[in-house]
Amino acid sequence: MERVRRAIVSHVVCVLDELDGASAHTEVHALPDELRGRVIAKRDLYEARFRALIEQGISAGAFASVDAKLAALAILGALNASTRWYKPGGERSPQAIGEHFAALFLDGLRLPEPATSNLRRIR
Predict the structure, then answer these.
(1) Which of 3, 123, 122 has the alpha carbon at shortest distance from 62?
(2) Are 53 and 4 in contact (CB under 8 A)?
(3) Cα 49 from Cα 45, distance rounded (Å)
(4) What is the DSSP annotation of 9-73?
(5) Distances (CA, A) of 58 to 4, 98, 102, 104, 111
């Protein structure tokens, strides 16, 4: 669980401290073709590693049995979206935002069983 916490905090600090670099990952469609392929390959590898951390937490019994891929994509999507509303010099530092997000998402992963029964019925 600590590894996931550190990954979340580090991700937020990285994308908010390097807003220009983060744009390359969040605005992939705007990149030239040759660069887009390289960025997507790196993004996919990063997502797989993040997903593996969640799967390890599930296997260790620290996290609820969730769809690790969807959990990783949801978390990373929320973290990356912070680049759209973050204002340097604002009320919270990138570190503080990362810590808050980590607590929020880890609490969600620790639920005994996620409230997804309604989601299964929607098709």
Answers:
(1) 3
(2) yes
(3) 6
(4) HHHHHHHHHTHHHHHHHH-GGGS-HHHHHHHHHHHHHHHHHHHHHHHHHHHTTSS-S--HHHHHH
(5) 12, 22, 17, 17, 11
Structural domains of the chain, ranges and CATH numbers in brackets? 2-121 (1.10.357.10)
Q: What is the C-alpha separation between 24 and 40, in angstroms, rounded?
A: 10
Encoded tokens for 67: 């769809």
Q: Which residues of 56-80 are buried (b: 16+ CB within 10 A; e: fewer)?
A: ebbeeeebbebebeebbeebbeebb
pTM higher than 0.90 = no
Q: 20-77: per-residue pLDDT in tens?
A: 656 655 677 778 888 888 888 888 999 999 999 999 999 999 998 999 999 999 999 9
Rounded to an integer, what distance in angstroms lies between the CA atom of residue 30 and that of residue 23? Answer: 10
